[in-house]
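Fold it.
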Amino acid sequence: MAEFKYKGNRRVLTGLVISDKADKTIVVRVETLVKHPLLKKYIRRRKKFMAHDPANDCGIGDKVQIVESRPMSRRKRWHLVQILEKAI
């Protein structure tokens, strides 16, 4: 896997790959816990991000780390940093 160099203050997120059908692109689902303002209960929020995977290394179910980058297409603004866990 090619190492992606980045500089500056960029957001780094960890999530699960839910799609790898597009060429050199993965869709990553990131889950965050948000406290409800009235009920004081934690709610699981999910968001999908499209990320650039130049070597097509990722598969569905992999746990990956992505970083903010320049826009590469209309919806793709993230870049794959590393694969944390491969799916079985």
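The chain has one domain: 12-85.
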